[in-house]
Amino acid sequence: MRILLVRLREIGDVVFTTPALRGLRRRFPDAHIAYLVEPLAADVIRSNPHVDELIVAPRKHLFADIALGRRLRAGRYDLAIDFHGGPRASLLTWLSRAPVRVGYQIAGRGWMYTVRVARPRELRRRHAVQNQWDLLTALGLPDPEANASPVEMPADPAAAAAMAERLARAGARPTDRLVVVHVSAGNPFRRWPQRSFAALVARLASTAGIRVVVTSGPSEREAARRVVDVARGRLAPSERDRVLDLGEFSLAELRGLLECAALYIGGDSGPLHIAATSTVPIVGVYGPTLPVRSAPWRDRSLVTESVEVTGLPCRPCDQRVCAPGDFRCLTRISADMVFEASDRALARANRT
Predict the structure, then answer these.
(1) What is the pLDDT along the chain (352 residues), one digit of tens a residue?
(2) Is the pTM of this model over 0.85?
(3) Which CATH superfamily is domain 157-351 in?
């Protein structure tokens, strides 16, 4: 059997499909499994042990998609599953001409699939892994369990070794507890304020034995530098070298960095879900989204703390406009709240 999977767009959403890869491999152990993603998320799948073929879609362009459609049709797939459901993903799934095409029942595009699965429009209090797995349930696979089917992105040993060397050059010592703080999110509605990040980083770095690595996405390098500068300005001169700015990271490098970390802190964005593929303790900061929908999907024995403001009638939201206008779901989360969650996470990790 030849299986084609399609999931375009976001890094985190691609990570959330990796339990399905394990499930498909268990059900079809001898199948050839190909996965079509966009360039940004390619590293998530590149080393996945359940995928035989990685297909990276070029930038969106009609002629490029027609050529890609021809390539997919030439692959002679027996089954195609579209985890995305957007217009481009639907078209590419249809162009594959796989005799069985599984996707969501979406107005105007449902006809492109031979098996259609209902997708409620409301924001359900249900994890994104389960929502995407509904497509496998339609094929007879049992519901997923986080312990048995966690998210996956194996660390590249070369990337992990390179990150350890990079940390040593920056002054980190083997005895340091390394805390990775990711200060950006691709979605502006999920960005915790820079001043809050700076206050948190300063407080963490003032704790004996801790060094903090501040990371960000490529488009927010200036924001990361400002967080580093403000945090260092709050520290005594002897403590300022505890805040490290190592520059940009690829996804593979970030995953390698996490092999050296004692704790990861960040908002609900792709890097948090990359962290979930490791065993590192995680503190997630949730604004308009809910932990029940996007908290780390992994072994329940691993340490995870979620920080959120409950009781807001506007939460969760569709992240297109802030109804109150003040982003209170994020601005009401204080640096002290996140620091206390970090302290708990480190303490819990020390007990395991």
Answers:
(1) 999 999 998 899 999 999 999 999 999 999 999 999 999 999 999 999 999 999 999 877 778 888 999 999 999 999 999 999 999 999 999 999 999 999 999 999 999 999 999 987 777 789 999 999 999 999 999 999 999 999 999 999 999 999 999 999 999 998 999 999 999 887 888 999 999 999 999 999 999 899 999 999 877 888 899 999 999 999 999 999 999 988 888 899 999 999 999 999 999 999 999 999 999 999 999 999 999 999 999 999 999 999 999 999 999 998 999 999 999 999 999 999 999 999 999 999 987 6
(2) yes
(3) Glycogen Phosphorylase B; (3.40.50.2000)
Token pair for 265: 């802190």
Domain(s) of CATH 3.40.50.2000: residues in the chain: 2-137, 157-351
CATH, domain range 2-137: 3.40.50.2000
